[in-house]
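User: quick one, sequence for these tokens?
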């Protein structure tokens, strides 16, 4: 027992010394901190953990973020910092809409969905930052997410007959959402390689858009209220792309220049919509499941919706003038269409994404107005426009108020696009949405979130609710959501 008590005392003493690492200490004591595995007593800082490294705010320079990075462990020459950030979230929501009730083709009710839903999930963000003795910076980042049975992507176990809670959770899997490496030097810039954000996502990691007042719950960008709304089917795809899976999910190379007087520039390239490891069997040109295909002229293969050779170029400016700070960016992106002589014909991707924000420090909180636009030859969320179809024009604006632990926000979006490829020359799609709410940071890393959202979708001769439903064919949904979010 005496030996056990002595060992426990020694462990407690070591832990106490680690916790007080911010205080002055002898040089010999500081040596134990290099290399670091993130074991530094620093203020709890939660940035965009999906880009879990020193460039998480889309800045090509280690220290360009100023105070934003001062709270995070930064490697010194010859050391690395290993991170394991994460998120656990619980959502409680109530939603009502046109998809709550199902109907047969004859107009007979086939079932209803409970308007109240509880959801919970986890995410993990392992990452590493290193610095060579010559100043070269390098690292990698991974985003792991939870997948759920019945979601389409993970259909096992079947939900009929209803599985027990144990059977349900045993069918959950973990998927890789991001996985990229980077090389950087402050006087040269940064190169990212892998499954990760393109220029739009790096220029706007929630700096320009009004998407970050809910502690990461998601709002219009595939938010938890959209994902769990009763019946589904009325969620509007996030056309503006920043931090959207359609934008960061393919493998690409991105270069970002150093900043010059607030300006930086970038370029990206991706050969396909997916990953080179995507299955491509015999007869590549005829394989409808091959992301690398550039032709689909084989009999029976009519999917020509793939694009390839994606290229984007753009620039950004951010500046601060006393209590006022502002920013603007613009990105042009294009990609080639797949060649086919059968099925629906599409046009090359060709569009502009641009955004601006103005932030004012009132002395009793900060007020931010932002405006985002995306438009051109695309259809919905980074999909090609069908030949002869209408251009897309999408507008997103919002207001933020931040004062200490309190963040309040409101946003509204309008998307005009071709919509259904079968209705070219007949009708176009109109979608709009509004949300407001906020979060309260009750302690380091933990947030209470509340929000209201309304969504509306319309296209003439298109039914958003499934054949057989009497009355309107428009898609409508509204709901309230309360969340508890822990980020680390």
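Assistant:
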């Amino acid at each position: 027992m005496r030996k056990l008590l002595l060992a426990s005392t020694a462990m407690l003493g070591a832990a106490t010394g680690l916790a007080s690492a911010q205080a002055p200490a002898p040089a010999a004591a500081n040596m134990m901190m290099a290399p670091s595995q993130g074991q530094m007593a620093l203020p709890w800082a939660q940035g965009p953990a999906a880009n879990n490294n020193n460039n998480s705010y889309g800045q090509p320079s280690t220290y360009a973020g100023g105070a934003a990075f001062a709270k995070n462990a930064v490697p010194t020459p010859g050391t690395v910092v290993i991170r394991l950030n994460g998120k656990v979230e619980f959502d409680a929501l109530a939603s009502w809409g046109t998809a709550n009730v199902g109907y047969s083709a004859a107009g007979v009710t086939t079932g209803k969905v409970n308007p109240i839903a509880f959801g919970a999930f986890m995410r993990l963000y392992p990452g590493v930052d290193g610095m060579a003795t010559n100043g070269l910076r390098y690292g990698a980042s991974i985003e792991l997410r939870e997948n759920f049975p019945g979601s389409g992507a993970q259909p096992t176990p079947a939900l009929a007959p209803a599985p027990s809670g144990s059977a349900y959770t045993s069918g959950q899997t973990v998927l890789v959402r991001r996985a990229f490496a980077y090389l950087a030097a402050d006087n040269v810039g940064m190169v990212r390689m892998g499954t990760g954000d393109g220029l739009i996502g790096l220029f706007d990691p929630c700096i320009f858009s009004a998407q970050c007042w809910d502690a990461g719950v998601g709002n219009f960008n595939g938010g938890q209220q959209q994902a769990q709304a009763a019946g589904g089917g009325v969620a509007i795809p996030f056309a503006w792309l920043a931090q959207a899976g359609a934008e960061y999910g393919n493998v690409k190379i991105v270069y970002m220049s150093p900043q010059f007087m607030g300006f930086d520039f970038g370029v990206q390239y991706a050969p396909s919509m997916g990953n080179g490891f995507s299955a491509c069997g015999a007869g590549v040109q005829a394989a409808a499941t091959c992301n690398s295909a550039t032709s689909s002229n084989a009999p029976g293969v009519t999917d020509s919706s793939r694009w390839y050779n994606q290229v984007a170029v753009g620039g950004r400016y951010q500046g601060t003038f006393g209590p006022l700070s502002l920013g603007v960016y613009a990105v042009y992106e294009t990609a080639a269409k797949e060649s086919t002589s059968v099925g629906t014909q599409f046009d090359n991707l060709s569009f502009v994404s641009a955004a601006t924000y103005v932030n004012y420090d009132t002395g009793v909180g900060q007020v931010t107005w932002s405006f985002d636009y995306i438009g051109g030859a695309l259809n919905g969320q980074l999909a090609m426009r069908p030949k002869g179809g209408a251009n897309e024009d999408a507008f997103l604006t919002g207001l933020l108020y931040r004062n200490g632990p309190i963040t309040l926000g409101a946003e509204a979006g309008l998307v005009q696009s071709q919509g259904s490829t079968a209705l070219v020359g007949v009708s176009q799609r109109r979608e709009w949405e509004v949300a407001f709410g906020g979060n309260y940071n009750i302690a380091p890393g933990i947030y209470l979130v509340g929000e209201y959202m309304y969504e509306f979708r319309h296209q003439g001769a298109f039914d958003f609710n499934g054949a057989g439903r009497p009355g309107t064919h428009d898609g409508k949904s509204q709901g309230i959501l309360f969340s508890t979010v822990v980020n680390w």
